[in-house]
Design goal:
113 residues; alpha+beta; YaeB-like fold; 5-stranded mixed beta sheet
């Protein structure tokens, strides 16, 4: 079972934007703990995979270790960390993806907190 972590900034943004529905959205994001291969791969930067999970017209972006995700089966994914870092609507999708890649290239995964 993988561990899902949601960046504090994103957690606050979800609560602010969705209010009552935020609990349902957070449960949807936490569902990756039981099936970490969900989501569409958008790219990789230095072995870190950027993936997206869609929910009602919004994209939620998360990063993870690409090697572990590709090479291990579900039982071995105990120590895999999936960190949700950003969200966007359809209009700002490419800008958000480029921003995530830029931060990963310059600061590494620690820059997305």
């Amino acid at each position: 079972m993988a561990k899902v972590e949601i960046a504090e900034y994103l957690f606050e943004e979800i609560n602010k934007k969705f209010k009552q529905k935020s609990v349902e959205i957070l449960e949807h994001l936490k569902s990756l703990e039981s099936s970490p291969n969900k989501g569409k791969i958008l790219g990789t930067v230095g072995g870190i995979v950027i993936k997206e999970l869609k929910y009602e017209g919004f994209q939620f972006y998360f990063i993870t270790d690409g090697f572990k995700l590709k090479c291990m089966n579900e039982e071995e994914l105990v120590d895999l960390l999936l960190r949700f870092v950003r969200m966007s609507d359809k209009k700002a999708q490419q800008e958000t993806i480029n921003d995530i890649k830029h931060v990963l290239r310059t600061l590494g995964p620690e820059g997305l907190k």
